[in-house]
């Protein structure tokens, strides 16, 4: 019974990945181009999200600043989810809805990229970060699910929306993580050439 339940998670996750691959490969490739333009012109990536998506935001920035699978120069990325002093001060003095947007206004420059992650597309602090990024002439890569929610309206035509076609938060997050690894792999391939992985 329990093992069957566990196996069903694996099957559902694999099914979604098969189904989503042809739907998401184009927006993911568009996101790669946005990231490449950013890093080759001296820009940086700011990333944000709540809960599991905060972990995803940090996962991405760790692989940009550190490395993914291949040796390469450092790439600039900052997760806006990590500084507890900044987060508590902004939430305490202003509102939790602006914990990311104030950091975007403080750190964002034209040509930078905001990686905005929300499985529902409806988290107010992520939506406010998108608005702040537009004020700073940044491109936004939005990762969502469940039809995209309010992120559909928040994003511009010049942004990239990667919307996972599933309603369950955990399944959406599983495809978000795969997407982040696709982004890291493709940026490395375009920067270094299409070689085999070294790690
Ligand atoms: O990881 C999970 C569920 O798998 C949760 O921590 C989840 O990330 C949180 O409930 C978030 O607050 C959901 O926000 P969002 O993805 O809708 O923006
Ligand atoms: Zn989770």
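Sequence proposed for the structure above (199 residues):
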């Amino acid at each position: 019974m329990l093992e069957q339940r566990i196996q069903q998670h694996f099957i559902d996750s694999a099914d979604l990945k098969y189904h989503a691959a042809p739907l998401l490969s184009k927006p993911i490739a568009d996101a790669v181009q946005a990231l490449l333009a950013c890093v080759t012109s001296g820009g940086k990536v700011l990333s944000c999200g709540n809960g599991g998506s905060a972990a995803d935001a940090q996962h991405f920035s760790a692989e940009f600043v550190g490395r993914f699978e291949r040796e390469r120069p450092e790439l600039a990325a900052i997760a806006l989810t990590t500084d507890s002093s900044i987060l508590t001060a902004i939430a305490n003095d202003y509102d939790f809805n602006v914990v990311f947007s104030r950091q975007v206004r403080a750190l964002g420059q034209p040509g930078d990229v905001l990686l905005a992650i929300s499985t529902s597309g409806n988290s107010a602090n992520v939506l406010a970060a998108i608005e702040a990024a537009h004020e700073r002439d940044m491109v936004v890569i939005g990762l969502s699910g469940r039809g995209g929610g309010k992120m559909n309206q928040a994003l511009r035509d010049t942004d990239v929306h990667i919307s996972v076609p599933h309603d369950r938060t955990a399944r959406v997050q599983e495809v978000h993580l795969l997407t982040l690894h696709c982004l890291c792999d493709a940026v490395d391939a375009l920067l270094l050439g299409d070689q085999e992985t070294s790690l």
